């Protein structure tokens, strides 16, 4: 078999026109989404109903075109159409069907198309299913269409996912990146893009309110629904990405403060700030300007994150390998969207005067929460983009790593936990509050000074704030019979639970890097890791050396068995480490298999990671809190 197949000479290959059809629909959607908003906005400002009403056919046409375009690309993957460059670069005929579907968004071009399509989904659902008046929908839909138009034009001019390599077609594709051949990476990107799409619609809705110079209670309800669902998807995406990194990358960590990781974390922090600001805007008619400004900031940060991920300015396991020249186009889109939005806000914010009545304890607590979350987002943003700016001005290379982020973010997290618990205790009886404080203080002293953490002082503060948050929420739930905000309760409880996991991993984990082969044993903590043997594994996608690691207690009784692998993928020879993990409620036993050092020996990373599972249990609690609120509670419970 030859490496490439000339479809002009072969009767076995048919030159399908479906990719051209998908490309045409993408261009059509881009043109409509870019042109129609101007006429719709003209109708909004000048009141000709014929122009204003164009938002209906425009949004439906754009959604239909992008849907068929995305399906065309997916069909090319499912049918192994390697004449499409994007397909041949990210798939092959041996790939499992569900991985072929995931390969659609596995790289730059397809993931951009997915994001644009999801924005159109959000916009169409908002246009068809909400009870907002036409004067509210028209400017919001027009603004969302403009976002779709600019991003689609970027795709058409710089990153065509339907580009062909004709007449010479590869006989086989290169395969999906082995890092992405995992269930976590099938769902992680779509969840994040669903969150980004929700932020895009929040931005568009904010622009619509600023253009109309009006923010009604109905509009606040709609903005709350959009913001809370977007927050839920961002939460799920970040939690799943953290789980994937911990289980698949083999380094034993769950967050690296990587610029690409930060690009999804900053919008989540701002979305969290938005939910708190909406509480006051809906209940007390305060922070009305904030609920219009935060979506602008969050969307701008999302575009900056898109630039970081897709411009080639950083090297990351998460980043797309892309032409740096595309970054200029992305910077232009960011400026074209963010600058007019900021100018509009500066001009029209004066029309959104909130309630000027006296600030009570609830107002103060929520306002401080908004400030803490916004400050945390600013801290992470600064640490992420400053090295890029520093390098961009030709000042050399600068690295901002985990010590910077941890030194600032950890105190902000402790402050936030103390704020929530303090306000919660403020509403309880003095005896309950005193008991919570006493138990929290005793717990912090006992854990920090008797269990030998790496940093006793920081551990003491962290445990105290975590215990305060957990106990204050539980006591309030036990004593409060009616009117409980279950979304807030479960979300805040999730933070406390996740803090347990963070404290356990950062302060109490035990680690050893050792040379091991069959017959070798290594004590660590209260267990013994014994390398029993090496097995050979041959799967459809890779072959691997698999170590059988037996974990014994001090009495040499077997606790569990771990199976780390050193994988070599057949398609490209790429090597991957697949960790062997025993998950437990109170600790994880973690072994990863590094480079082969001799005929039978490997570099092994051994870890005991206390309370690790609590990190993701907390994330699940947050997501469940949103589901619970949206499904079972009355609308007023979010206020």
Automatic annotation (TrEMBL):
InterPro entries: CcmF_C, Cyt_c_assembly, Cyt_c_biogenesis, Cyt_c_biogenesis_CcmF. Residues 105-311 form the Cytochrome c assembly protein domain. Coiled coil: none annotated. It comes from the Bacteria. Residues 335-629 form the Cytochrome c-type biogenesis protein CcmF C-terminal domain. Keywords: Cell inner membrane, Cell membrane, Cytochrome c-type biogenesis, Lyase, Membrane, Transmembrane, Transmembrane helix. The chain crosses the membrane at residues 24-45, 57-78, 112-129, 141-163, 183-211, 223-245, 265-281, 290-309, 329-352, 364-390, 402-426, 433-451, 457-474, 486-504, 611-629. One of its GO terms (biological process) is cytochrome complex assembly. It holds the Pfam family Cytochrom_C_asm. It is found in: Cell inner membrane. GO terms for molecular function: heme binding; heme transmembrane transporter activity; lyase activity. GO terms for cellular component: plasma membrane. It is a multi-pass membrane protein. Belongs to the CcmF/CycK/Ccl1/NrfE/CcsA family. Required for the biogenesis of c-type cytochromes. Possible subunit of a heme lyase. This is Heme lyase NrfEFG subunit NrfE. It comes from Parasutterella muris. The gene is nrfE.
